[in-house]
Every structure is written in C-alpha cells, then in structure tokens.
C-alpha cells in the first residue's frame, strides 16, 4: 500500500489499547508525535515479529501505520529478489511462506538508506541471528535518531577480550541508544498462526518505554509482560539454546522423557548460576517468566536447535552441525552451537568449567571432542548452588 494511503487510513484508526497505555491523548492525536517503527531483520521470527507489530501500528493511534522491515537481500531460485517477492505477495516466501504480513509492512533491502525511514524511526526492533549484529550496528552508526529506543529479539552473545557482551549492550555501545529485550516461549511458526503464547520484555529503568514496547507487541494471542531485568531476560533467551542441544542429543539417543527432564532441570540450574555469576543483579523471579522456564521447555520439546542436535546424535556425530544446518533448515540459522562455544570460552577464561558440566559437555560434543552419549556421563557433584 502506498505511504499516502496508509497515512490517510491511519487518521481513521482508533486508540483501542488492550492494556495500560502510556501516551497522552493529545500526543497520540498528533501525527508528528506518533512513533515510527523499523524492524531490522526478516527471517522466520523477524517476519512474525513484523506481522505482530504491523497489526498494532495499524490499529493504534500512537504509531505510524507503516512498518519498514530490512531484508538481507537474496535471489530466490525463481530469479526474483526476496524483497520484491515479499512486497509483491505480502509474504516472506522464503522464511515464512503462507503467512500474510499485513499490507502496512514494507520490505526494504537497503539498510543504510532504509535511510529516510530509519532516520525517522524512533523505535528500532533488532531481530537477526546474533552473529550478524555487530556488522549491522556498525553500518547504522550516524544513520539513526539520537533519541531512538531499541529492542533486541536476538538470542545470543558476543565474546570479546574483555568478556561476554550481550547483544542489547552491543547495540547500546555501538549506537549510543538504550536497548530493551523481548524473549519468551516463542517458536515463530506457532505465533504466525496466532496460537496463544506469552513473552517477556526486559527493561533497564524507564517503565514508560517498557510499556510502549509491550503495547507494540501485545495481542490477545501474544501476552507480553515487562520485568526490570534486561540481563536476566536476555541470558535466559540465550542460554536455553545450549540446553536445547543437550535435549536434542538425549532425543537422538532415545533416552526417554525422564532423562530429558533431568537435562532440562540441570540446564535451568546452570542458566541461573551462570547468569547470576555474570550479573549479580539478575533476579530469581525472571526464571519463572515466559523467557525462563517456559522458553526452556518449548525449545527442548520443539525448536530447531533440538531438532538438529537430535539428527547429530542419531548420526553418532559423524555429520557436522554446519552440514545438518544447511540440509535441515533451508537458510535459517542455528544459534545453540555458536552460543555453546561462546559460553565455553567464558567458562574457560574465568576458570568456571567445572562449575558448569552440562554447558561444557554440550560444547565438547558439538565440536566433536566427545560423543553424544557423553551428555549423561559427567558428574554434577561440582555444581554449586547459587
Ligand atoms: N525462529 C524462531 O522461532 C525464533 C524465536 C525467538 C527468537 N528467535 C531469534 O531471533 C533471531 C532471528 O532469527 P530468525 O528466526 O528471524 O532468523 P532465521 O534463522 O529464520 O533466518 C536467518 C536470517 O538471517 C539473514 N542473513 C543471512 N545471512 C546474513 C548476513 N550475512 N547478514 C545479515 N543477515 C543475514 C537471512 O536473510 C534471514 O533473514 C535469532 O537470534 C533467533 O535466535 C527466533
């Protein structure tokens, strides 16, 4: 839909807020004060996030209708560019086929020149595989509003010389803007067909900003709760992918549900211990939010990390994760293997390997040092209670 038509339509929309709104009626009625949203990323979850967001920006007066979604450009087998296909069909034909995104989603392949749009956007949603985030942020330096707020839906972290760096911190450090996070038990394909689920927004200080993010994502089938614990929420979302690999090994070896439950319990304990050692401010209660135990359960039952790890174990570790990822995921990215390596680097560097036998063993299996059966062959005597 043309931007002018979208704007005309937005004049008619009503402010029907499903929960606490933080914007005054004078500001929402003034189009110059409407928030403008850009989504940076358009994979499986990026496309579903754009659909959720677009349904709210279209409905609520406090937002401009149009949601611009940055696409890492690819040429499809048909020869058509992915961006053109998305704008022609209103579907992400590669990463989320069969789901309409909403007419107010506009795909754009030009990151810097998403330009006029990014310069105008005051709400930036980051949702790409974590390994691409540093490069993307560097390309955006000087191209965004100084008062923009960011939210990261990215699960993963960067390990630097000076220690681990969460993706929300990377965004804040490179772009000089504040960054919240949204994580939860959110397998994208289920939310795409509007099955009920929950999510957690982690925010640093400003409750009003958190409420605006909640407002942007919340729908009757996607219940969003805010907690003041960015690191806790983000580490839950990041570390559960390591536990999901362990669950996949157990499934591949057909060890049964009791073993898988044991692995999930040990994993949750290591997630909490690791998070609190890195950031003492992390709250115990965060592990009971959607981003914690719920995301751990769904990822260990479904999810791509579990699935590929299952195939890895079934093959006795003879086929590499890279090969299985390319064969099984059609361009989607695994996060668990790189996160397991990054966690292992932190554990070795800090002398914590013996405190986290599950995390350490997952990396040693996924890098081929140990066979998949080693997943139940370590001692947990060393694990301290935190
Ligand atoms: N898919 C899910 O169910 C789900 C749910 C919650 C969170 N997440 C998280 O969301 C984030 C994004 O995952 P996704 O599922 O949207 O992506 P995806 O794995 O489905 O797709 C990969 C994306 O990376 C892009 N890409 C490939 N090479 C690139 C490059 N060099 N530079 C930049 N982009 C490149 C592809 O175009 C594609 O958009 C990840 O951190 C993931 O852990 C995913």
From TrEMBL:
One of its GO terms (cellular component) is cytosol. InterPro entries: 6-PGluconate_DH-like_C_sf, 6PGD_dom2, G3P_DH_NAD-dep, G3P_DH_NAD-dep_C, G3P_DH_NAD-dep_euk, G3P_DH_NAD-dep_N, NAD(P)-bd_dom_sf. NAD(+) binds at residues 41-46, 132, 188, 304, 333, 335. Keywords: NAD, Oxidoreductase. One of its GO terms (molecular function) is glycerol-3-phosphate dehydrogenase (NAD+) activity. Its EC number is 1.1.1.8. Pfam families: NAD_Gly3P_dh_C (PF07479), NAD_Gly3P_dh_N (PF01210). It comes from the Eukaryota. It catalyses: sn-glycerol 3-phosphate + NAD(+) = dihydroxyacetone phosphate + NADH + H(+). Residues 18-29 have a biased composition (Polar residues). One of its GO terms (biological process) is carbohydrate metabolic process. This is Glycerol-3-phosphate dehydrogenase [NAD(+)].
């Amino acid at each position: 839909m043309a931007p002018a038509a979208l704007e005309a339509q937005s004049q008619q929309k009503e402010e029907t807020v499903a929960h606490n709104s933080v914007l005054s009626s004078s500001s929402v009625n003034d189009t110059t004060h409407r928030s403008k949203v850009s989504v940076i990323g358009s994979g499986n979850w990026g496309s579903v996030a754009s659909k959720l967001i677009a349904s709210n920006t279209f409905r609520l007066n406090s937002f401009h209708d149009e949601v611009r979604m940055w696409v890492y450009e690819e040429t499809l087998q048909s020869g058509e560019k992915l961006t053109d296909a998305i704008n022609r069909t209103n579907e992400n034909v590669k990463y989320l086929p069969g789901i309409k995104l909403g007419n107010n989603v506009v795909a754009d392949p030009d990151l810097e020149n998403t330009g006029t749009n990014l310069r105008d956007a005051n709400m930036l949603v980051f949702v790409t595989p974590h390994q691409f985030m540093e490069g993307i942020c560097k390309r955006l330096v000087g191209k965004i509003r100084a008062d923009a707020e960011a939210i990261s839906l990215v699960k993963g972290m960067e390990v630097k010389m000076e220690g681990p760096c969460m993706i929300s911190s990377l965004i804040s450090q490179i772009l000089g803007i504040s960054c919240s996070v949204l994580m939860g038990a959110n397998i994208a394909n289920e939310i795409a067909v509007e099955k009920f689920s929950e999510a957690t927004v982690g925010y640093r200080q400003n409750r009003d900003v958190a409420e605006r993010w909640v407002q942007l994502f919340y729908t009757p089938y996607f219940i969003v709760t805010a907690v003041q614990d960015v690191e806790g929420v983000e580490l839950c979302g990041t570390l559960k992918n390591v536990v999901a690999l362990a669950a996949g090994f157990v499934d591949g070896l057909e060890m049964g549900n009791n073993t898988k439950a044991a692995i999930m319990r040990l994993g949750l304990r290591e997630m909490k211990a690791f998070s609190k050692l890195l950031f003492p401010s992390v709250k115990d209660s965060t592990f009971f939010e959607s981003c914690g135990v719920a995301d751990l359960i769904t990822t260990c039952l479904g999810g791509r990390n579990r699935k590929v790890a299952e195939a890895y174990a079934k093959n006795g570790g003879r086929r590499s994760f890279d090969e299985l990822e390319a064969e099984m995921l059609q361009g989607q990215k695994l996060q668990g293997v790189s996160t397991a390596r990054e966690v292992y680097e932190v554990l070795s560097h800090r002398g914590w390997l013996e405190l986290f036998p599950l995390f350490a063993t997952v990396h040693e299996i996924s890098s081929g040092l140990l066979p998949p059966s080693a997943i139940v062959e370590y001692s947990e005597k060393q694990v301290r209670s935190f």
